[in-house]
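Objective 1.3, modelling of assemblies. Example input:
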Amino acid sequence: MSKTQITAEPGMPQIIITREFDAPRDLVFRAYTDPELLVQWMGPRDLTMTFDHHEARDGGRWRYVSTDAQGNEYGFHGVFHGTPSPDGTVQTFEFEGMPGHVALETLTLAERDGRTLVRTVSSFQSVEDRDGMVASGMERGVHESHERLGELLTTLQAG
Amino acid sequence: MSKTQITAEPGMPQIIITREFDAPRDLVFRAYTDPELLVQWMGPRDLTMTFDHHEARDGGRWRYVSTDAQGNEYGFHGVFHGTPSPDGTVQTFEFEGMPGHVALETLTLAERDGRTLVRTVSSFQSVEDRDGMVASGMERGVHESHERLGELLTTLQAG
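Predicted structure (tokens):
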């Protein structure tokens, strides 16, 4: 059974996340690129995600808002560096609750025997920023997101 | 006398560069933002820099080419995250000779008594990428660029 690995070495301004999914690479890439699929799995189950825009091209901007049951809204935005592809999608990431703190996220997808290894490297501007992200409870969000993504990929392949 | 400080701690995927210039912040910001000024100081003296484009806005793309005396060309490109301002300019950076290796650069300018402290933090995707950048001889380029920038700022203030 595949399991999400989150690596945040002490003193390093990075978080590395890996997870294998039982789905072909093109489908996983679609789930990471198509905003209609992204809203179905990204984030914890008790938050609703909506996209303002998601321009998946070099210089394209993205922004989404997560809304909790109480109606509180959390905005996130960034831009794409280069054209997103299964070999590499590079984008910036900023949580609007902490303006001015930006991370660089790199997503790579590797297929082997019909399964896909997803790897995300988040590079922060400082160790403090990285520690803040870990302290924010992102771990639960990542695990729940991956669980939901696994379910979505199963549904898409059955459909 | 102000001196350029380059910090690259072992095992850290970052380079931090600081330097104080004897010029007001708005002028230093212009020198970092206006491509017509940028080509006059960025890079070592023996390279000629030309911009393909330099869209200093959220999602804007930039690309320049450095050409040496032998006609060899070195391309660099990236995108801006957010609108560049003296408080913070965030952009991605990729050397086209090493495609797929991207850094996040943050420039901040702080003024005190008419002088401006310039600070650049470059966050790399890995320590290997960072070490590669240091090994490329960037240090000479940074020192020479800052020397040229100091000269340009003096000329602009005299003019």
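The helical segments of chain B are 25-33, 35-38, 127-135, 138-158.
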